[in-house]
Amino acid sequence: MKNRSLVSINDLSREKILSLLETAGKFEENPNRRLLAGKVIGSLFFEPSTRTRLSFETAANRLGARVIGFSDAATSSASKGETLKDTIMMVSNYADLIVMRHHLEGAARYAGEISPCPVINAGDGANQHPSQTMLDLYSILKTQGTLENLHIHLVGDLKYGRTVHSLLFAMRHFNPTFHFIAPEELHMPEEYRIFCRENNIPFTETTEFNEEIIAEADILYMTRVQRERFSDLMEYEKVKNCYRLTNAMLANSKPNLRILHPLPRINEIAHDVDENPKAYYFQQAQNGLYVREALICDVLGIDVE
Ligand code: CP
Questions:
Q1: The pTM is what?
Q2: How many angstroms separate the alpha carbon of residue 52 from the centre of ligand 1?
Q3: What distance in Å separates the CA atoms of residue 303 and residue 103, rounded to the nearest whole number?
Q4: 12, 50, 122, 144: most buried, per Cβ within 10 A?
């Protein structure tokens, strides 16, 4: 990579992760700083997004940058057949940084390798979503007071869920115990289980999701079954209602438990959970602003001090 792009959470060491989280804390204290006056951010979303795009664009605006780009590839020349390479080369003529979401796994790595300006991966297919992971880590640290020695329950679509894949990689620095809770059709892919074994990360696997299992959790990380990742919609229909967290299921949960979800949710968290103080997913999304301010400054080499 010829620049400071962030395409995978594996690009970040433990020290770098902790340093970025500390910087994010400074942005939480004061999100409005004109550190990027005169800069232009290219925001290229080939796939739909609410939180990631809007929080990146808000971060850019609060730091004094301007934003160009598209939120629907159908309105770009990609719809006429322009290649990803040509799109990246064009936008890098105009922007100092590219934030890109793309449906193809590896698209962000490719963009980062050919782009003259840095690229931040805002999600590439079922592969990675590193800025989401950084805000997940920030949320875990803020609510637990530590990232170390936590029991983290990952629930739902563990096959296609790029957020759980990135989180699993990042947590290797912090001695976690994972609990994978998924239907057979959406279980954690073998490569991630091998990763856990090679890194001495203990994990359990089950298809059951109940009060007893939740009682062991420090972090309950819920995910949506992603309709858009299924080539056969009959397969989606079979698993779309696999799990539903209700408030009653939290009766015996630990006092420090927090429920995270990258969002959007469909029906996997009942609305009666929203009022429970252990529900943290809306604050989690808010934390995305501070973390993305820190990430933008870092890849642009801006000294936040
Ligand atoms: N968490 C997340 O990536 O949300 P969006 O798809 O709305 O950006």
A1: 0.95
A2: 5
A3: 33
A4: 122
